[in-house]
Design brief:
324 residues, two-stranded antiparallel ribbon
């Protein structure tokens, strides 16, 4: 978790956040509900995610004055590391890479470093798809529409963590920080170069994270409409993405960086005391909404009578089949 926080803070520094305000990006990125859900569900490989922030950092360096082909090479390698860590991280990194890459190609004084990153990224994607295709793809019913809706970004998952979500909904609570959104808006208003690209990237990531059908909630009778990105889930390889909401990594990264820029504005205009108050508010909000480590508990329970009866029937059936 610390590696992800460090990488996100370095990306915020490259974006334009001043020190020590850039550290807020690491707190928001690594202290999010996505990290909590990954820890509680045992998906540790999604928590060790410095690759996507580093990829974004090297892409920005490659698109600026003094960009070198090594920056593009490192960006491509970091994208490959994110992709081979988890398909969700790979899709999230791809969204961020497309947003920053297209912006860089339009404005970079030298496009060659970005082209190196693009070649590396395409090559890693092709290899990833080939390896998964050889391993065998799941059947179409592996990701039904009901399953996808339960794991999508919606009003049901945007709020703070609750015990019921941990018990019956795979700990799926994004606990999206309202303070982060407010600070990110302030960062955009500061006139930061490239801020609109980061906002657009986060917006597109949210739309993809809503799954193949857009809905406000997850109830079966909730009004729905087809997503603009529904074709993604028509691909056989995308059947593994049963929790589209995990693609919110691609929204958290730019929003946390913009929030750090907003905190820099607060520090410059209102001073250190105001910045400290805002940081304290963010920490309190994170602890109260994400609720770690309080959610990590062990409860012992007896098996229901129906389970014990079924186990007894299985034992009797085995005895009849194998008298010895």
């Amino acid at each position: 978790v610390a590696t992800s926080a460090f990488a996100a803070s370095r990306f915020a520094r490259i974006v334009g956040a001043s020190s020590p305000a850039h550290l807020l990006a690491g707190v928001l990125f690594a202290g999010s509900g996505l990290v909590a859900a990954a820890l509680l569900e045992g998906h540790v490989y999604q928590v060790v995610n410095p690759w996507m922030p580093w990829m974004a950092m090297f892409l920005l360096r490659a698109s600026r004055q003094g960009g070198h082909w090594e920056h593009g090479l490192l960006a491509g390698l970091c994208f490959a590391a994110a992709l081979f860590s988890s398909g969700y991280l790979g899709v999230s990194a791809g969204i961020v890479a497309i947003g920053l890459g297209v912006y860089g190609l339009m404005n970079a004084p030298d496009r060659r470093p970005l082209l190196v990153a693009a070649v590396m990224g395409v090559g890693a994607s092709v290899l990833f798809v080939q390896l998964f295709s050889k391993a065998g793809l799941p059947a179409p019913d592996h990701a039904t529409m009901d399953t996808l809706r339960m794991g999508s970004f919606s009003l049901n998952s945007i709020g703070a963590a609750m015990g019921e979500a941990d018990r019956a909904h795979h700990s799926w609570a994004l606990a999206l920080s309202a303070t982060m959104i407010a600070l990110a808006a302030l960062g955009v208003r500061s006139g930061l170069r490239g801020a609109k690209v980061l906002v657009a990237t986060a917006f597109v990531a949210m739309l993809v994270a809503m799954g193949p059908e857009w809905a406000l909630g997850i109830a079966p009778d909730e009004p729905r409409m087809p997503s603009l990105f529904s074709a993604l889930w028509d691909l056989p390889e995308a059947r593994f993405l049963r929790f589209p909401g995990r693609i919110m990594w691609a929204a958290l990264l730019p929003l946390s960086a913009l929030a750090a820029v907003g905190l820099s504005v607060v520090m410059t205009r209102l001073g250190w005391k105001s910045m400290a108050m805002v940081v304290g508010l963010v920490i309190v909000e994170t602890v109260a909404s994400v609720r770690l480590p309080a959610r990590q508990v062990v409860r012992s329970a007896e098996a229901p009578d129906a389970y014990r009866a079924a186990q007894g029937a299985d034992a009797q059936r085995q005895t009849r089949l194998d008298p010895e």
